[in-house]
């Protein structure tokens, strides 16, 4: 199959040739004809599958072939993205595909001044890529009208809900013309996403390019149990032992990113970090340097790393497990791409046992545990498996060890083998979908 047989017009084929795309990926092969035929789409596809071209190519073709010229302060197609990184990335791809077409494209997102964006929108743009919050601001300030909108794309819809954009999406839904084409892309399909799709889409074609919620099987995954306070030490130990070259490391919080980067830099290790508190230019610089192999270790939060197009990483390390289990799939999706093998190592402490259990349940596998000599945890990580069970051993009274009993003597201190530290953040934050949440929820 070629892009020509999918019915794409010559200026698009020329752009694809320049980019070196020879064969459509599975999501493209399914999405392109459906979008050209005017269908709504509900696509299960994550970053790395070629989903951007899957919606952008037919969208550009439709906008070129049909519809009126764009009016002032209007957009003919809107692509909603969860983060500004993804918005910029999607916009860059769209602009490349559109290089031989007489169409205008632009990206708007928060965290930067709104005025230049308002100026740019005066003449109208054919394709607008936007994050939800900034889109609403522009709409409310009359810088943007949506009555000319032909197509709406929701990119990484699951992430938009995870980031708490459900209210914004509900507001945007009210701003849209009733007659439009809607394409929804999501790596995972939770009940909330299905609810959103039910409201937004009209008789959608469902396409799925990888098994639902199953992590890539080209990625070798395992867990190293460790005490929380020794994670950084273990990371450095594993890095030296395994002679790691380039590693993307995920930490849960911004502070966590900074602390690990400081520690690694203090040891003379070439590390940098990206998170939402850092200015966009700094983040981009760190990423560019990582891609150019000038930085060996890049530590990131999920939000900052989301959608980043880093090709073919050999290794991803979860310094902390993600709070939302689906993020585990996104994280490890950074390695083992395009049939290459990759490794994903998670450093897991007792506090994280519920998260580990949720990940195993979601990915339908029990992750192999490998104890690292000298790093055996004082606080045991209870057994887990793909059924979602956390096997807690019965609590034993704290007392100095005298004989038997299954506890471990460590640094002269009695440690209950079933002890799990409290105050665990919930695995899946309860998400509200205000407007969309109209009926009883269907359970899978
Ligand atoms: P995406 O999943 O849209 O983020 O795309 C992942 C990467 O694959 C991007 O770097 C694209 O430029 C690239 N890509 C998308 N489609 C193709 C194709 N048909 N052939 C080769 N590369 C592609």
Task: Walk me through this protein's architecture.
By secondary structure, this protein is an alpha/beta fold. The chain is 34% helix and 17% strand. The protein contains 15 helices and 18 strands. The strands form four sheets. The protein has a seven-stranded parallel sheet, sandwiched between helices. α2 (26-36) runs parallel beside α3 (51-65) and α3 packs across α4. The chain is globular and about 70 Å long. The model is unreliable at 401-444 (pLDDT under 50). Bound molecules: adenosine monophosphate. The site of adenosine monophosphate (AMP) has 13 residues, from α3.
- Major sheet size, sense and barrel closure: 7 strands, parallel
Q: Within the CATH hierarchy, at the fold level, what is the topology of the largest domain?
A: Rossmann fold
Radius of gyration: 24 Å
Oligomer: single chain
Tally of structural domains:
2
Number of strands: 18
Widest sheet: strand order? 3-4-2-5-6-1-7
User: Helical stretch count?
Assistant: 15
Low confidence ranges: 401-444
The rounded distance between the terminal residues' Cα atoms is 36 Å
Q: What is the 3D form? A: globular
In summary, what is this structure?
The protein has a seven-stranded parallel sheet with strand order 3-4-2-5-6-1-7, with helices on both faces. It has a seven-stranded parallel sheet with strand order 10-11-9-12-13-8-14, sandwiched between helices.
């Amino acid at each position: 199959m070629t892009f020509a047989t999918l019915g794409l017009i010559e200026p698009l084929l020329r752009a694809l040739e320049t980019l070196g795309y020879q064969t459509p990926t599975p999501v493209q092969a399914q999405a392109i004809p459906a979008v050209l035929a005017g269908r709504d789409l509900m696509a299960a596809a994550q970053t790395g599958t070629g989903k951007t071209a899957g919606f952008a190519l037919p969208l550009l073709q439709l906008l070129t072939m049909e519809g009126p010229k764009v009016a002032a302060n209007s957009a003919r197609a809107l692509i909603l993205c969860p983060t500004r990184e993804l918005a910029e990335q999607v916009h860059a791809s769209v602009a490349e595909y559109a290089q031989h077409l007489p169409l205008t494209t632009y990206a708007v997102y928060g965290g930067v001044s709104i005025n230049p964006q308002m100026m740019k929108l005066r003449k109208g743009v054919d394709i607008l890529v936007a994050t939800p919050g900034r889109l609403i601001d522009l709409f409310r300030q009359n810088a943007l009208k949506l009555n000319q909108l032909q197509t709406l794309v929701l990119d990484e819809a699951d992430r938009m809900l995870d980031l708490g954009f459900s209210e914004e999406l509900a507001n945007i839904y009210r701003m849209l013309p009733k007659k439009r084409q809607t394409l929804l892309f999501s790596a995972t399909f939770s009940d909330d996403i299905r609810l959103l799709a039910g409201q937004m889409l009209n008789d959608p074609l469902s396409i799925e390019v990888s098994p639902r919620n199953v992590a890539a099987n080209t990625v070798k995954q395992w867990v190293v149990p460790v005490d929380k306070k020794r994670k950084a030490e273990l990371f450095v130990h594993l890095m030296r032992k395994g002679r790691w070259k380039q590693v993307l490391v995920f930490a849960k919080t911004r502070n966590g990113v900074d602390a690990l980067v400081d520690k690694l830099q203090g040891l003379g290790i070439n590390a940098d970090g990206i998170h939402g508190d850092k200015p966009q230019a700094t983040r981009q610089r760190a990423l560019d340097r990582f891609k150019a192999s000038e930085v060996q270790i890049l530590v990131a939060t999920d939000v900052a790393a989301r959608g980043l197009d880093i090709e073919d990483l050999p290794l991803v390390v979860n310094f902390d497990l993600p709070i939302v289990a689906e993020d585990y799939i996104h994280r490890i999706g950074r390695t083992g791409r395009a049939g290459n093998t990759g490794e994903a190592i998670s450093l897991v402490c007792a506090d994280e046992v519920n998260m580990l259990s949720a990940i195993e349940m979601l990915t339908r596998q029990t992750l192999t545990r490998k104890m690292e000599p000298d790093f055996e945890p004082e606080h045991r990580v209870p057994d887990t498996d793909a059924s979602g069970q956390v096997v807690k051993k019965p609590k034993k009274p704290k007392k100095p060890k005298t004989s038997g009993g299954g506890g471990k003597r460590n640094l002269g201190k009695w440690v209950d083998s079933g002890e799990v530290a409290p105050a665990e953040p919930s695995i899946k934050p309860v998400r509200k979908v205000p407007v969309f949440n109209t009926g009883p929820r269907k359970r899978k």
